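assembly run, all chains below
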Amino acid sequence: MSTVAVKKKARPGAAQKKTWRAIAYTTLIVGSMISLIPFLWMLGTSFKDPANVFADPIQIWPKPWLWSNYAKAFSKLPFAQYTFNTCLITAISMFGQMLSCALVAFGFARMRFPGRNVLFVTLLATMMLPAQVTMIPVFKIWSTLGFYDTFVPLTLPSFFGSAFFIFLLRQYYMTVPHEMDEAARIDGASTMQVFYKVLLPQIKPALATLAIFSFMNNWNDFLGPLIYLSSPAKRTLALGLYAFQGQYATDWNYLMAASAVVMMPLLILFFCGQKYFIQGVVISGVKG
Amino acid sequence: MAKTHTSRLQRKEAIEGYLCIAPWLFGFIFLTLGAVLFSFFMSLTKWDMINPAKFVGFANYSTIMFDDDRFRQSLKVTAIYAGFSVPLGLVCSLALAMLLNLNVKGMQWFRSIFYIPAILPGAAVAMVWQMVLRPQSSGIFNAILGKLFHIEPIPWLTSPDWVLNSFIIMSLWGVGGGMIIYLAGLQGVPTQLYEAAEIDGAGSWQKFRNVTLPMISPTLFFNLIMGIIGSFQVFTSSFIMTQGGPANASLFYVLYLYQKAFKYLQMGYACALAWILFAIILALTLLVMTSSRRWVYYEAELKR
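ok done. output:
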């Protein structure tokens, strides 16, 4: 088969390569323009005068340009309170998740105990379980314990680790040579010291990835706050946006301003921690 | 003597090991295992979370299967959505990854532009798309389509015929997540393989078909499974944008489940719906996994 191909085809010429690159660039540029439309439309609308939001034909460039929309959007609903709530939930969850996942993954990667493999396979199996199956019983548990309309159901579970992150960190621990903890143990280090002083510094990049994904999951969460929070003062930003839409259905310029603000931390996070974002996706995708 | 010494150490290690995994184990027992059993039991009851549950056997399941039009509608909506958005998403994200893998200038910028939509809060994304997909020509999509192709304004979210298309288009906005995974897979393909193929006279298509595709098939497999699972769990966008309407044309499965549980307080019924969802996802995943033996190529297999 290969010999036939040789006869038929010479090495692709330079001209052909050039055409391919031109096609590639065109596709990428058109694609990214389409991809940017929603962003630009959001930003444009967020600066418009209400009268021009639904102008026909559409107004591309806001005229007048109203920076005040952002301040007004924030004064219409207590968005400062929502921001505080979201930050609080996100910070506690991130902390809990990093702590518990690092410890549990350490246990699975480094300690020998009966039933370890069975338990680890169980952990992997829980990743298959859709959250909807446990959603209602877990809701019942938290409300029976009196935690309905508190941040507890949104934060406390992260101290029990999450299967996916534990798996990710365990994979990372496995790449650290055993000689490192053995040397520490010979020097008389306890298990906790090995974990804390020897291994934890080694898995910092993986922890950074975990932190970023944990931030994203908590900041973006909608269903959790929707189910558990009822008082307006306890809303998160995502829930606040939804409430805003319900109350000021016609003020799309304000709604777009608020949406842009809710998206902003993720954009900043992405540009600061791009490396860890991509690394995390890669670890999960290629090894998983 | 030596033996008791080691077993004492082993016991110490075992205890410490259990302590390390204790947080997960605790959560697993109560919030996963316990909840799963509870959920299954509750799926056999009529329960509104206020009054005591009443055991009804498999009545919820039989009602769902044979006597629930909205269930059928939600399954249909979700299946059609999955049937289009998953394959389209796979193709688009792979195509983008391959383009980015050509060593294009500004690759990082393109990569960011395509990836960012995948990490944004679903609630904010739903707001923005409502604005983008407005009916008449005040929506940017209709305005552009009208300007460029003289297409009549499309009732994206207000017509039962169009609403699902809109959700599929929206899902394509998020293909960046898959793209990043493909990109990693593509960068892991050894260049020698392409060189060898070129020496054998393979053209672009042959290289793609016989080198790229087999080498990234594990990535493809991963993206396929994640895509299927994700498409069956759409909630936020439909909850915010359409509430399942118009005429239930965007009643996604999880939205229906949510409504049964938290709007109509039919918790037992909703548990049964959740189990059926689990069965569907499990069946599809197993199907893909069994088929994967034929089309997924693992290099490591040779070593094992």
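Chain B has 15 helices and two strands.

The radius of gyration of chain B is 25 Å.

not gonna interpret more than that til we talk
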